[in-house]
Write a structure and sequence with these properties.
This protein is mostly beta strands and 87 residues long. 0% of the residues lie in helices and 34% in strands. The protein is built from no helices and six strands. The chain has strands at residues 17-25, 33-36, 41-44, 50-53, 61-62, 78-84.
Amino acid sequence: MRIETGRKKETTAKGPVSFTGWLARDKNTAAPLSIYEYKPLRCEMNDGRKFWKEQPFTKSIRIPEFFFPEITWKDEPVKVSISIEKI
């Protein structure tokens, strides 16, 4: 069964659950690698912070920063899917 992040869908499936979203890496924030429900926009603040912002704002999922080292701040967000299975 497929669900999308941030949406209020429930499943009683016993197999894996997948969600799709947009993976992007911030330049210099506490959560450098995240998955967003909607394609985020690049934001550069006057104080030097550089991050991705989603419109409308929804919750994002933090990903360990050592995952996907090939994705940098300069890259556009990448469409991804994550599967979770109870073991």
